[in-house]
């Protein structure tokens, strides 16, 4: 991108070689990163930013974040990859909660800002993003 910006053209294209989803590796191969909490001055929590985006959805609209196989999500997305959706989603839509001793995948679809990252990045391609009813979501022109 910067080569193009500076020189007006680029003589080469950098290829990734694989999809974003395929680039994720099992959590066991990596050390856990403890991210510092937002300080409210330079860094902010995700839900504050979602609030600023004026994101709105009708509560009872058709599901626009579809998980094809919930068992696979639990077995692989949580069990092998340590729940990356809870970190890559910029709007805190996904949570793994414990309910009656079971891990439950919670989807707070009303916060979605429609970046489509989950559709692209889910390691099993198990999440399908579809456009929300009536174009609902963030009010970008007001930002
Ligand atoms: S589309 Fe973006 S904001 Fe919406 S759930 Fe997926 S990752 Fe989160």
Provide tags for this entry:
alpha+beta, binds iron/sulfur cluster, two-stranded antiparallel ribbon, 6 helices, two-stranded antiparallel sheet, Alpha-Beta Plaits, 143 residues
Would you write up a description of this structure?
The model has no long low-confidence stretch (mean pLDDT 92). This protein has a two-stranded antiparallel ribbon with strand order 1-4. The protein has helices at 2-7, 20-23, 46-52, 70-78, 85-88, 117-121; strands at 65-67, 94-99, 102-107, 127-129. Helix content is 24%, strand content 13%. It has six helices and four strands. The chain has a domain at 45-131: Alpha-Beta Plaits (2-Layer Sandwich), CATH 3.30.70. It is α+β, with helices and mostly antiparallel strands and 143 residues long.
Tell me, briefly, the overall form. Answer: globular
Q: Largest sheet, order of strands side by side?
A: 1-4
Strand/helix succession? HHHEHHEEHE
Taking the sheet with the most strands, its summary is: 2 strands, antiparallel
CATH architecture label name of the domain at 45-131: 2-Layer Sandwich
Which percent bin holds the helix content?
A: 10-25%
CATH topology of the domain at 45-131: Alpha-Beta Plaits
The CATH class name of the domain at 45-131 reads: Alpha Beta
**Total helical elements:** 6
């Amino acid at each position: 991108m910067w080569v193009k910006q500076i020189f007006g053209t680029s003589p080469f294209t950098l290829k990734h070689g694989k999809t974003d989803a395929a680039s994720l590796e099992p959590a066991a191969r990596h050390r856990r990163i403890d991210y510092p909490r937002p300080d409210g001055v330079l860094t902010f929590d995700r839900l504050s930013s979602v609030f600023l985006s004026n994101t709105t959805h009708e509560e009872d609209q058709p599901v626009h974040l579809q998980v094809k196989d919930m068992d696979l999500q639990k077995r692989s997305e949580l069990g092998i990859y340590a729940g990356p959706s809870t970190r890559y989603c910029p709007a805190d839509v996904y949570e793994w909660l414990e309910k009656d001793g079971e891990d439950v995948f919670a989807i707070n679809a009303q916060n979605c800002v429609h970046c489509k990252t989950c559709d692209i990045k889910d390691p099993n391609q198990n999440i399908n993003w579809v456009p929300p009813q009536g174009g609902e979501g963030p009010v970008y022109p007001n930002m």
